[in-house]
Amino acid sequence: MKYAHDGNLDAACGEALKQIEHTGYEDDLQDDGVKDILKYGIACYKKRCKVMLAEKI
User: Fold this and answer.
1) Using one digit for the tens of pLDDT, what is the confidence trace for 27-42?
2) How many CB atoms lie within 10 A of CB 39?
3) Which H, E and C letters describe the chain, residue by residue?
4) Of 4, 25, 26, 35, whose CA is between 20 and 30 Å from 57?
5) Which segments in the chain show pLDDT lower than 70?
6) Total domains in the fold of the chain
7) So what's the pLDDT on residue 57?
8) How far is CA 56 from CA 1, 6, 12, 36, in A?
9) What is the pTM of this model?
10) Residue of 47, 40, 48, 46 lying closest to 13 (CA atoms)
11) pLDDT at 15
């Protein structure tokens, strides 16, 4: 989850998804036996919010 300081919700969602990739959260979940993993990037700016779902590869 990210706060879009400049109001660009799309860019902030993208940054949140990049953070998921860089931190390796998915690897830890797979090691624990989780098979289906959905990755959401969430951004907020004032009273607006946007959610993006990462595409499965």
Assistant:
1) 989 999 998 999 999 9
2) 15
3) CEECCCCCHHHHHHHHHHHHHHHCHHHHHHHCCCCCCCCEEEEEECCEEEEEECCCC
4) 4
5) 56-57
6) 1
7) 53
8) 19, 29, 20, 10
9) 0.82
10) 40
11) 96
